[in-house]
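Aim 2 progress update. The chain analyzed this quarter is reproduced below.
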Amino acid sequence: MEQTPGRSFRHRFEGPFFRRLFVGGIRNIPQPIQRVSMPFWAGFFFAFLSDARHRAERNLEQILGPANPFGEQWRTFRLFVNYAQTLTNMYALHLGQGLPVEVDFQGRENVLRVIEGGRGVVAVTGHLGAWQLMPFLIERGTGVALPAMTMAMAEEPNAQVSEFEKQFRSKFRVVYTTRSPFALLELHRVLERREIVGMQLDRHPGGAHVMIPFCGRLAPFPVGPAMLARTAQCPIIPVFAISPTPDRKRVTIHYEKPIEVPKTRDRDADISAAMHKVVAVYEDYVRRYPDQWFNFYDFWRSPGESS
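Predicted structure tokens:
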């Protein structure tokens, strides 16, 4: 299928039938067997989704440098295994099987200081590690509770898949930024209540973006997080859920230091400056955990650029 820059990879197994099949397996196969068999399931998609595999290989080469053919295949296969486990953990949690990983936190005080100081937080993350567990994990931790996260996201373009996913997304608050021109106002109200808005950093569906150096090449990043933070006078905090061990049984939530968005007369310069700082933090995590970076398209391709 033709791939649009900035959107998740679409393939023949993307529809609701295969998703129901996947969820059925998670519901009926014990978790220990799921984890042991994960290389088998990842291998299936590794074999049959050659376009996604080749794009992932090229992305990893940009991050890690060239490798021999076996090395390329091996590091891409590890990426597929990690992705399969991440999706499995997400659906297991949605199905009420409990949290399938142990969780710890680093830098949680960075968010607490902002909330206790009377401001909301724009929490940005990427398709890295256990990002799909983030809405459920961010409130956890010892001490003072954090407010719930409201996720800002684009609508699923496939209507059938969107209907299937509603049963899961209804478990946390979502504002669809592509549904209404008033979505920004709704998100602004969330921040005024000293709450957290979660936004993806690494998908640009063709809207306003800035080209920023990322792992050695310019890449497009959406400006929405910086625009919202600047308007609401709230900081951006990068947040990433990383599996620190090869067995993927643990997840560490990393809250980075707040990044303030300047508010001068030059709005574009303010937004660009903030986004450069955010992307620098994101790049550091991607370089440290490349086999947990789940973007199966040409990440450096700008909107409108031909394949």
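The mean pLDDT is 85. Residues 102-292 form one domain. These observations will guide the mutagenesis experiments scheduled for the next reporting period.
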